Amino acid sequence: MQVSVETTSGLERQMTVTVPADRIDQDVDKQVMQQARTRRMDGFRPGKIPAKVIKRMYGDAIRYDVLNRVVQESFYQAVQQEELKPAGGPSIDLKNDKEGEDLQFVATFEVYPEVALADFSAAEIEKQSAEIQDADLDQMIETLQKQQAEWAEVERAAEDGDRVKIDFEGFIDGEAFEGGKAEGHDLVLGSNSMIPGFESGLVGAKAGDELELDVTFPEEYHAENLKGKAAKFKVKVQSVSASELPELNAEFFAKFGIEETEVDGFRTEVRKNMERELKNSLKSKLKEQVFNKLVELNNIDVPAALVDEEIDNLRRQAVQQFGGPNAQIDPNTLPKEMFEEQAKRRVVVGLLVQEVVQSNEIKADDSRVQETIAEMAETYQEPAQVIEYYNSNEQILNQIRSMVLEDQVVDHLLASAKVVETEVSYEEAIKPAQQVAQEAEAEAAE
């Protein structure tokens, strides 16, 4: 077998493989003889069909199967011989497959990039820490109460936090616009579910009031035809309702799966959940920082085949998340551009993490795997059963090992980085990193 490899561009390779005709002919003859022994055909005893009859009737199909198999086997033999690491499957172009002549094909594929990790000691990482104060706990319990609140109509002017039932219609330059009208719409004032100025304009209104609100659609509004446009909304208030918070009792506690009868016990359980959320949030932010810096310090080429594969994964996840397990949506109908940036980053992080693991011979720590499983099981009513199930399911166990391995990579990189420890409030600590970044950008722009 002859092999030649050409670098066409970046990570793309074109490999020309030539397989001697003898190998093809021998494989075809073997298949013919095997079928002569096993096929049944009228007029011939089992195992006594002449090879020339088989070849005449089925030779083309046999040769086609042999060529496909030989191409596949030869490709993998060739990449091993040339010490190449294909990223994704190849595109095969048969150059010569004539009977009696050498088989020749060209395989076009991408290879994994060679990664030489940059020194991580130049990286500066902010490691946040936070404590849950009694005020944070009080606020969380109030939030839980608001989630279960009931609404009761009141005979007073609407205040921030009240719910109003309204009819409204919007106009731009005196003309009603599509999607700007509703009847019997429930709106919680202060929820920021409407454009700026709409909800605040209803504070002080009473049932039966008719108002005109002058507002402006934001420049980043989702509807292109409304961006930045001044609008007038005619609004009629049908009713004003105030929320009535439920009492802190056993019935209320049970709605959150907490089997307590006393407020102190409930507060203890809520605090435990808050501590778990806080720990996970701080850990997630730290990991994201480390991986962002790892990507920033290491500029590598990314195989398009791996990005496309990750885009397909993200498409399927999106369908499952928004459509449920029985969603009748073809993931491929979702625009590729929606997921391209995220997919590329995932692939880059994956390649860099893999290089850190391999170059430093990091292996998942079994004790940390078990600790992680125990922490995950704590959120269930029967932790022991969950632990047993996770340990008996190899697929789930491998997923947890991968999580732990990522954590160990973060620890390894932090050991050489400049770590600045910062104390923050609970509220700031649990904010997603993306939200924190957006708020910082908005503040800088003001």
UniProtKB/TrEMBL annotation:
Alphabetical GO biological process terms: 'de novo' cotranslational protein folding; cell division; protein transport; protein unfolding
Subcellular location, record wording: Cytoplasm
Polar residues bias locations: 1-17
Domain of life: Bacteria
EC number: 5.2.1.8
Entry keyword Cell cycle: yes
Reaction equations catalysed: [protein]-peptidylproline (omega=180) = [protein]-peptidylproline (omega=0)
Keyword Cytoplasm assigned: yes
Predominant subcellular localization, coarse grouping: cytoplasm
Pfam families: FKBP_C (PF00254), Trigger_C (PF05698), Trigger_N (PF05697)
Region feature (Disordered): 1-22
InterPro entries documented for this protein: PPIase_dom_sf, PPIase_FKBP_dom, Trig_fac, Trigger_fac_C, Trigger_fac_C_sf, Trigger_fac_ribosome-bd_bac, Trigger_fac_ribosome-bd_sf, Trigger_fact/SurA_dom_sf
GO molecular function: peptidyl-prolyl cis-trans isomerase activity; protein folding chaperone; ribosome binding
GO cellular component: cytoplasm
Signal peptide: none
Protein task: Involved in protein export. Acts as a chaperone by maintaining the newly synthesized protein in an open conformation. Functions as a peptidyl-prolyl cis-trans isomerase.
Domains as described in the record: Consists of 3 domains; the N-terminus binds the ribosome, the middle domain has PPIase activity, while the C-terminus has intrinsic chaperone activity on its own.
Protein name per Swiss-Prot or TrEMBL: Trigger factor
Organism: Marinobacterium mangrovicola
Lineage: Bacteria, Pseudomonadati, Pseudomonadota, Gammaproteobacteria, Oceanospirillales
Gene that produces this protein: tig
